[in-house]
Write a structure and sequence with these properties.
The complex is a heterodimer of chains A (511) and B (327). Chain A is 34% helix and 24% strand. With 511 residues, chain A is an alpha/beta fold. Chain A folds into 4 domains: 168 residues, Rossmann fold (3-Layer(aba) Sandwich), CATH 3.40.50; 71 residues, no CATH class; 172 residues, 3-Layer(aba) Sandwich (Rossmann fold), CATH 3.40.50.300; 76 residues, no CATH class. The chains are: A alpha/beta (511), B mainly alpha (327).
Amino acid sequence: MNERIAPANTAVVSMDDITKTFPGVKALDRVRLDLYPGQVTALVGENGAGKSTTVKILTGIYKPDGGTIRIDGEAVKFTSPNDASDAGITAIHQETVLFDELSVAENIFIGHAPRTKMGLIDKGAMHRAARTLLEEIGAPFSSHTPLRDLGIASKHLVAIARALSVDARVVIMDEPTAALSHKEIEELYALVETLKAQGKAILFISHKFDEIFRIADRYTVFRDGAFVGDGMIADIDESALVTMMVGRSIDQIFPVRNTDTGEEVLRVEGYAHPTEFADIGFSLKRGEILGFYGLVGAGRSEFMQALFGITRPSAGTCTINGTARTIHSPADAVDAGIVYVPEDRGKQGAIIGLPIFQNITLPSLGRTSRKGFLQLAEEFALAREYSQRLDLRAASLDQDVGNLSGGNQQKVVIAKWLATQPQVIILDEPTKGIDIGSKAAVHEFMAELAAQGLSVIMVSSEIPEVIGMSDRVIVMRDGRIVAEIAGDALTPETLVRHAAGIGETRTLEEA
Amino acid sequence: MSMRSIPVRELILGGAILVLLALIAGRFPDFVAPGNLANVFNDTAPLIILALGQMVVIMTRCIDLSVAANLALTGMVVAMLNVAVPWLPIPVILAIAVLLGALMGAVNGLLVWKLAIPPIVVTLGTMTIFRGIIFLISDGKWVNSHEMSPAFTGFPRAEIFGLPVLSWTAIAAILVFAVMMARTPLGRSFFAVGGNPHAAVYTGIDVGKTQFLAFVLSGALAGLTGYLWVARYAVAYVDIAGGFELEVVAACVIGGISIAGGVGSVAGAVLGAIFLGVVKNALPVVNISPFWQLAISGSAILIAVAFNARAGRAKGRIILKSAEATS
């Protein structure tokens, strides 16, 4: 290792011209990223900018299609995550992957525990080493503590200790503060300082500008999978960084919509939950598309789940077409005319054991049965109507839904919801993880639904989509509504400012 | 199932049963005489009835190991009731058996639904508890045939159109379940809950309640079978139908009911039970040791599961195609 002789201004890791393509999506297009010893580099970009893909390449999970990765100036090729960790690169992920039933020391050393001569795990050595690591990062718990007894922040410390146990030179932190309280975040900052002092290169991924400006030394900005710029944090201010992040050529075209909306369909007042959100109130008009923007963990999906009856809010009223409705279960919500297409593909997915028509009619069985018996002919008719409207390609509606392509399965799911003749449809991240072409189709379809008089709530973290599709946007941060934006005020800058709490809104929070 | 394309799995299983019968007929033609086949069916009737109940439980991603103990406890209760109140009419006995069985099923269902205890643990516990209760109420004593009333023991054997009531009960259960699975919202929700519980929740189906109802159905059928069993063999004691729950689960697995949930059919459960019934009845006739019977049942389970696993594998691919690009 030539770590000592390398001057401090030489990058430990430098990625050059890295390209990665997935079917239909160019995730990274000739990006570059340099990490320096003893410095924190913030990787900044919107959702879909390619940050996570970069992390996965750097940790050997993905192989790049092109470009070079150099460590101490020497080109390397990672063929597995082990290669990356042998090279001293370690990552602490958004959701820490640890084992609740094992002790802290076992979690730190799982997979590379010190062994005795007999090949058994040397518990004494393991706990001694764990204790040293825990002291180093100032963790206030013993190496014998079972992991399940620790809170989220302490689990993070264990993950960090685990990262250090492999003698890491590069530590990647992917949104490490997303689930932490203020006090815990302060402790994490202190730890980052310790790591810096030890000469580790740190890649810090965050959406929160205050923390980027607080702890980062350098920044690198990606946009839409491409490198935009990098430099020293000291030489840039927040608004310049925001502009680099969102300033884009408009390459996505959104459907033109008639934005004349009708009378009020849904009114929500005072929705609250003990731990997840408070004071949510808004109104939704017929034929309107209402965007919900916010950072991950802002409480948008949590609120939607309460509105749909999956979780129970502690307070709040919901009025549909002038009638107050009590929603205690998803069945109540469907009855009231609200349907929810969740983000998770697995959750929103089709039910594989059932044929197409039965998937479509599942939430509408009340209407298609007589005296408690299903009327298959009526079910077929209903399914045919909606599958034709969505141009579903299938040999027969009696076919097993498992034999359909992914896109057609998605159509089955949407047909299922439209068949309930809802008033309000909630789409949670409707285009997450799908390619540009399919995105356009989804947008087209949303516009069509709204034109037909359906009111749409769209939860989305993609700024172009939020701006391109919404008539009005509600921004949430830390479980509360912080802004409602419409018309000319609807710009990427305002959205990012409100969501991240930059400028005027920050003083509001501290008051 | 409704108007699905050809149920391949059921056809194969039906074919296997026919081949088995043909093989036996070669050595022992009398076995396939209509009268004897009717006997085999009658002998398999309790297994068929219980397999139907187990089918809905397994389809909702649960398992009911307490069916045999439920059967034995209900059987003991109605037998003791018959001894104490011999004039009690059979319809009342039947109603008590079904209700008592359903009640025990409801206990299982509530523990799974409200306390979210894994079904295998719940029913392993209640299985032992039910057997224990039999011991407590009977003091470990047997209720023998001479203590039971002739009406009580005669009912399952009474013949209608040449078949005993026991067989007719199984046939009725098959028909009721066929209609329920194909033509009621409840039947549909068993598929949905087992096939994709998350999607079912978002569709407005209460997953826990559906599982509860599956346990109640399984319990009710176990109770019904409890009376029929005790009356047919004219004896009730602590250990009747000991270990029978595993045969019931085996019938379901052989019949293509997926342990992973969401896949299954009435025809499959019935054919699975009949397959085991034929093996059980034929082997003594062709003079093969009962140990072979166990080996054959075991092999049938493994073959059935391997077959279903292969059938299920092809489906996974389509869903995962674009999953990689998510990040």
